[in-house]
Amino acid sequence: MSEENKNKRIPQKGDGRSKDKAPRRYVVIFVLMCLIGLYILGRALYTMLPPESDYWKEVGRNSKTAPIPASRGNILSCDRQVLSGTVPKYALYMDFAVSDPDSVSKENTIAFRDSAFRVDLDSIADGLARIFPDRDAQWFRERLLQGKKRGKYSWRIYPKLATYVQYRACKELPLLRESMYRSGFHGDEMLLRLKPYGGLASRTIGELFNDTSSRAKCGLELSFDSILRGRTGSKHFITVRNRRVPVIDTPAENGHDLLTTLDINIQDFADRTLRKKLKENDVNGEIGVAVVMEVETGDVKAIVNLTRGEDGEYYEMKNNAVSDLWEPGSTFKTASIMVALEDGKIDLNKTVDCAPGIVNMHGRNMKDHCYPRRSYGELEVKDILGQSSNIGVSKIIDEAYGSNPAAYVDGLHREGVGIPLNLPFVGRGEPRVPHPLDKGRFWSKSDLPWMSIGYVTMLPPISTLTFYNAIANGGKMVRPRFVKAELKDGMVVREFPTEVIKERICKPSTLKDIQYCLEHVVSGGLGRKAGNGGKLFKVSGKTGTAQVSENGSYAGRKYMVSFCGYFPSDDPKYSCIVCIKKQGLPASGGGQCGPVFSEISQYVMSRDSMRSALVAADTNSVFVPEVTKGSRRRAEAIVEGMGLSDKHIDIVETDITDLTKVPDVTGMGVKDAVYVLQKCGLRVRINGCGQIARQDIAPGSPATKGKTITLTAAPKIK
Length: 718
Fold this sequence. Notes:
Layout: H1 3-7, H2 15-48, H3 52-62, E1 64-68, E2 75-76, E3 82-94, H4 103-131, H5 137-150, E4 155-156, H6 164-170, H7 180-183, E5 185-194, H8 202-205, E6 207-208, E7 216-218, H9 219-223, H10 225-228, E8 233-240, E9 243-250, E10 257-260, H11 264-278, E11 285-294, E12 300-308, E13 314-315, H12 320-323, H13 333-342, E14 351-353, E15 358-361, E16 364-367, E17 378-380, H14 381-386, H15 390-401, H16 405-415, H17 447-452, H18 461-472, E18 477-478, E19 483-488, E20 491-495, E21 500-502, H19 508-524, E22 540-547, E23 558-567, E24 574-583, H20 589-611, H21 632-641, H22 670-679, E25 683-687, E26 691-695, E27 708-714
Parallel strand pairs: 2-10, 25-27
Antiparallel strand pairs: 1-8, 2-3, 3-4, 3-5, 6-7, 8-9, 10-19, 11-12, 11-24, 12-13, 14-17, 15-16, 18-21, 19-20, 22-23, 23-24, 26-27
């Protein structure tokens, strides 16, 4: 065979068919695409022409717009306990009528419901009675039969609102476990605003106009409404084949959380202690106020406002500590003495003759509380405050400023007395410290001595506390703070820092003298009951007792007694004021408010001692944070950031390799739990803060994509 023939390629079997198939395949694809395009074009033309176009125009005319409510943010305590939160509740209904344009489908649904209802009626009634024990099975049976007889849509099968857990339990009952369209059972979700701690700090936290309203009424709910309420979305409904279908136009943006300064444990103790004192026979108080503040930051840790109701019990009806304007009485004497010390009018060695216990001051009698039993005689400045002598203080101020009362009032303003605090509450009371040069007000000679002992001026209790807090804080006056931060999904998006009102209210020497006098009030004066005998820690403060003017008259014999101070005296951490408004005598700030102050101070200091126990531990001890479940990588990063990278941590990592099953997330942090469950395709609802304590879908159950799982979180208690 020649070389030429050898080099010729021998045709392989099937080559011809392969070459012919390629163009044929492209032709088929092209034809199919053309046919599909023609079909789409035909359908579009069909939709544009009557009668189909008439139908869609009618659908458009029947569409209705509705708001999508945003979930309101929570108000949290300083340790992230929920003080006011939104929870879902459900109104339970049963449809006993069927609406379906398809007659065959409608007949099948009716037949199924009738059959299942007859068979499962007793089981459903028994199950509902177990879930809602306030009604028996017979009541539910009759209620269901009544709805069946009337054949109504949305027949209410239980008059009260059900919790999410109760609603889910209903969905486990025969017939009710079927889909809404098949069984007719459905629950309409309503978002309610609830306070887990009841009346504690209720007026400060605030309220909505009703449980389901988004309109804020008072307190922090109103002041920070723009943060809490979020943004409402919108949706419209279109009617398709006789069914209303929702179409979301703008999704809702949920509100952010508020992290407050309130400590629910201190709040609870202060509430119980003050409530107990108000009920004592010799007190029988009408109104009680107690506020605890952190000295350095101005953080309000507790604020109690109790008013006696018609039934004799005490309730939070008004934020008296912030809104009520009262003549402060003898707690104001501290400010008067401070002005005289600051201006060099007196020193601590100054003595005043207070005999015989009653003195005429510009036509009015000034009395000490010991009159007519006895008189104090000569008193030094520290004893004038210690014994709360009206004569002693008024003589000092009248002698020093009688010819120039404006200088005295200017001195009060210089100290920060009467400065508006601009607290975040609608209806807050603004201090009233009248000035001799004020237009429209007559200034009499008697105003000066009576102002010096706490009359003529009007202050809300929290203003008095702010002044004493400045004395404890080295002369720096800070604004009371109620909110620390704004949170979104647990993360801080904005902080509300401590605000300084005045860097210095007086000279250091004046401050030192006043601090000495206030400590003497408790150690050797009328404020003994506010302390603890010096056995635990030193307390400083001032008693106050003032007659309450009503309708311009003091004839009603009502009194406002108080004690305001700080502790411990050597290194002040907290300040506190206790006020009680009562009818008749006895009336004593030291004897009736002092014991409440004492109990609160001892409780707060004991909690601080327990928190600082770690400091007293052996220096070789290293405390490693406990991690139960979650991401090892993230936990190790946190431990390394604490400088404990050489320490071993125990952690149970959750297995999420099987995304078709619901994992066990109990013990995890909220962030880890949400990540794991969303990876399985589940929607997550969170109640509470802290570690996950409970999940409403059992671990190992099928993970249905889009299904909602509710997690209950709680702080880990050791």
